[in-house]
Design goal:
Distance between the termini of chain A: 10 Å
Number of strands of chain A: 12
Helix content of chain A: 40-55%
Shape of chain A: globular
Largest interface: A-B, 79 and 79 residues
Structural class of chain A: alpha+beta
Oligomer: homodimer
């Protein structure tokens, strides 16, 4: 499927589910961007889930997004259960504006929904010449170190800076030892997973990909510590706790809710932006000059593999597995939308 | 040794090495704080090295610290090779002041030296009711994922927030799979280290603690990616690159230099600070209510072990190994200072 066809389809579905056209297009673009970069777990396979969230009322198609507690450098955006991409792009825009004004822009996002690919927002800021850091908080889906149950979320962290060549150097990582995508991949191939990757539903360590349910945190206490502190500096600062409500089993705790934050830094305020871009390239070149670990085979920069996949999939199209196509078809039919025909039929 | 005696001794040494009394006291307090919390690698064992840095001119005992590019929310502090604790406490003070003014305070630190225990500065901000995030950048001492050589540093990340009971919830972690402290500990006991912890001097993977020289990044590309992005958002933003200069082997690259940043967030600007503190306690309680992993034995919060060690060492004193005592004695003698007598002789 071409990116354009998928984008049009996704936007049409979200519009039929109640979103204004502009918002539907933003959500569609963020999902397809993830597919283009090879992060299919955050791509169009999410469409049925998003529609479901809209139907249950957890995601608000026409949110009254409000900016609160505003200063020249900071703001709290009350997202009113907006689709994550809509809330986060609004936050990115506010943070960028404030950064250009005050050197730094710090925007908290309260009561958003699935933030999708966090790197989309930081790299959008980097394309404007800013450095950007973003995190997001969600309900527990990852083990807390020392516990045999989900206690924190695989809260992602993304950092992006502009470089001199291809636009951006982009880190976008979860705090788990392994991404949900890689766990899903292992489930498909049926291969055993290494010890230390996951617990099963009951909280017991497992090397059976089919049984793997709760990923373990990266580097034990470090990954779960980071995730816990992300909950503190996002959810607790915006008075919308997710983890304690979930663990206590309150009604609110079982509803889909997320919080996030984005920090934008105006590089040009602190030095020459052209020198900065040159220095990013120089740093990349220096790291790439190091002796290669033959077991890995190549020294890659953060986001480099995604950039390659983007180039290939922009040319060759995005592979969508049959099972996902069927789910999308079901959603399309229910909403009166039409799936684009895939080139292979 | 009591904390007080060590503090007085360290301050006396730094004053004799040229620092003003106030600055010497700050450095002494930061080092002894690390000892009190059990992070002995960042404690008084650093004194001889700091004195050496002062003597070679890499650390400036009487720096002309200057605030540049200032806005109501941000600043770049040119530290003029100040001792890390002096530069970072100045940065903490500026960030806290700006946060109370503008909701957020973002302070970059250029050309500092060894930042010591990063958690000291974030927890100092948290004691003022702020949330704080700090990172620091240094020359390469950790493998970059995919390379068989040091390519990035074990750049620490610290996040602290005020809680309702004991003051602060504090995360202070390096980006390596294991801390230098644990590697040093393994060297002493002579036990084999797990595969995946370190490379030897030549860049080959090793399980021999004695040969271990270059720690590996936590979670492979995640740890080294974070460390690389920390270099970008600190060193490159302040125009003081450390990694590329080091790898290229320039004269400047082999001098001891660090950069850092601290972000302070005024919790009270975005919600009720008492509710925040209550919510931190509630979150801790929820996580601690989870089923315990019998292999770990206990669910600990970030910084909890350090807090316990602090309580014990405040009562019982700080154990300083004979070898460290001898090194301190040598430094003391050369500068005309007197080592405090240890209670055991």
């Amino acid at each position: 499927m071409t990116a354009d066809a998928l984008r049009r389809f996704a936007a049409d579905v979200f519009e039929r589910a109640g979103m204004p056209g502009g918002d539907a297009a933003i959500v569609a673009d963020v999902l397809v961007w993830a597919n283009l970069r090879g992060v299919d777990t955050h791509g169009v396979m999410r469409i049925p889930r998003y529609v479901n969230l809209l139907e249950t009322g957890d995601m608000n198609p026409r949110p009254a997004i409000a900016v609160r507690s505003e200063t020249p450098a900071s703001a709290l955006i009350d997202a009113d259960r907006a689709a994550g991409p809509v809330a986060m792009m609004r936050a990115k825009a506010e943070a960028a504006r404030k950064a250009k004004d005050a050197g730094v822009g710090f925007v908290l996002v309260r009561a958003t929904t699935h933030t999708a690919a966090l790197g989309y927002y930081t790299s959008a800021a980097a394309r404007e010449g800013l450095a950007a850091v973003a995190v997001s908080a969600s309900w527990p889906n990852m083990a807390y170190h020392g516990a045999r149950a989900a206690g924190v979320s695989t809260s992602p962290i993304s950092i992006a800076v502009p470089d001199g060549k291809e636009g951006t150097l982009l880190l976008d990582m979860g705090t788990g030892v392994v991404s949900m995508g890689r766990l899903t991949q292992a489930k498909k191939t049926g291969a055993a997973i290494p010890a230390g990757w996951a617990l099963d539903k009951k909280g017991n360590p497992t090397t059976d990909a089919q049984a793997a349910d709760i990923p373990l945190p990266m580097a034990g206490p470090k990954g779960s510590g980071l995730a816990l502190m992300i909950e503190c500096i996002t959810s607790l600062v915006v008075s919308n706790p997710l983890i304690s409500e979930f663990i206590e089993g309150t009604a609110k705790g079982r509803r889909h809710r997320q919080n996030g934050l984005i920090l934008a830094i105006d590089i040009a305020r602190f030095g020459d932006p052209e020198t900065f871009r040159h220095e990013v390239d120089r740093l990349v070149k220096a790291i790439k000059s190091l002796p290669v670990d033959p077991q890995v085979g190549e020294i890659l920069m953060p986001g480099e593999r995604g950039k390659r996949t983007l180039a290939r999939r922009s040319r060759e199209g995005i592979p969508v597995p049959r099972a996902i196509m069927d789910e999308l078809q079901t959603t399309a039919k229910r909403l009166g939308s039409t799936m684009p025909a895939s080139p292979s039929g």
